[in-house]
TrEMBL record:
Belongs to the GMC oxidoreductase family. GO terms for molecular function: flavin adenine dinucleotide binding; oxidoreductase activity. This is Glucose-methanol-choline oxidoreductase N-terminal domain-containing protein. Its cofactor is FAD.
Length: 310
């Protein structure tokens, strides 16, 4: 079996298939440890927070006619299979003002999911004040920590960090490296440029190049016939949904100057960075151990939503 793409989904699927089949993965990139050093290992560099979608996100609303097996309650058992939850280490966090609430029913450790989910052992002082401020204006703590289909209120969000050594739990470390049996063969720096099909429309192979594009199905002749014809691509399968219905999340930052000490305050000098490094390497604590914090959500009032365009 051949899988295209060794990312979050690709390696998870490949590891499952490898338990009963010979599997190869074509991946355009390289190994993150080599390409990005410790920036994809140490939690501090970026966010690795785990938040599930709302019940309203599953299934997608019309015009997509999803099967009812894609509703949140049907998908939650599959989400549970992916991860193992470790409760917060309150002694290491040492943050009594950062109360954590979570719903154990959203996880099932008996399934021994390979992705590690835990809480960081460092709390940004600024976020403690932010949490109090948001709660003061009515955005209360979420008792289900944004993991049970309800995105409403605030929470100290769980992160995909391995609590044993404080490193990021990635698709590679969780699925590929943890396999005890035969592992997929991964072809690095190999860009899939086209899927080859038989007359029966059965996919039989992949054309690989060092540079290519991600519009793989449409380049291979599977997609809306009108779109393919406009680019001179022979139509193998007229599939109107391919390349359509892209959903994106609106996200933008509003930045304000603050005087409260924050994570950057404790990493502003070489001496502080060295001390934080020793905290992380020896105890998996300190600023470098954190890749997330407090999130709070509220639904835009109906009076505002009615004026929004689709």
């Amino acid at each position: 079996m051949l899988l295209i793409g060794g990312g979050t989904g690709g390696l998870a699927i490949a590891s499952c298939l490898a338990t009963f089949a010979s599997v190869a993965v074509v991946e355009a990139g390289g190994l993150y440890e080599q390409d990005n050093g410790n920036q994809f290992v140490v939690p501090y560099y970026g966010l690795v927070m785990l938040v599930l979608g709302t019940t309203e996100d599953y299934p997608c609303p019309p015009p997509i006619d999803w099967d009812l097996s894609y509703i949140f309650d049907k998908l939650l058992p599959h989400f549970k299979k992916t991860s193992t939850l470790t409760p917060p280490n309150l002694a290491k966090r040492n943050a009594p003002n950062a109360t954590i609430k979570y719903d154990p029913a959203a996880f099932d450790n008996s399934l021994r999911g390979p992705l590690h989910v835990s809480w960081a052992n460092w709390v940004d002082p600024t976020q403690s004040w932010l949490a109090l401020a948001l709660q003061a204006v009515g955005m209360t703590l979420s008792p289900v920590v944004l993991s049970s289909g309800q995105i409403n209120g605030g929470a100290w969000v769980p992160t995909t960090i391995d609590p044993k050594d404080g490193t990021r739990s990635t698709s590679k470390s969780s699925y590929l490296d943890s396999l005890s049996g035969p592992k997929p063969i991964v072809y690095l720096r190999s860009q899939a440029s086209k899927i080859t099909f038989e007359r029966t429309k059965k996919a039989t192979g992949v054309i690989v190049s060092t540079n290519g594009t991600n519009y793989l199905l449409m380049l291979s002749g599977s997609g809306p016939a009108s779109s393919l014809a406009s680019h001179g691509t022979p139509v193998i399968s007229d599939l109107t949904g391919v390349g359509q219905n892209l959903w994106d999340q609106i996200f933008f930052n509003v930045l304000r100057d603050i005087t409260v000490p924050n994570t950057g305050t404790y990493l502003s000098t070489p001496a502080q960075q060295a001390f934080a490094g020793s905290q992380y390497l020896i105890n998996t604590t300190g600023p470098y151990s954190s890749a997330g914090g407090y999130l709070s959500f509220e639904k835009l009032p109906a009076s505002y939503r009615k004026n929004l365009s689709a």
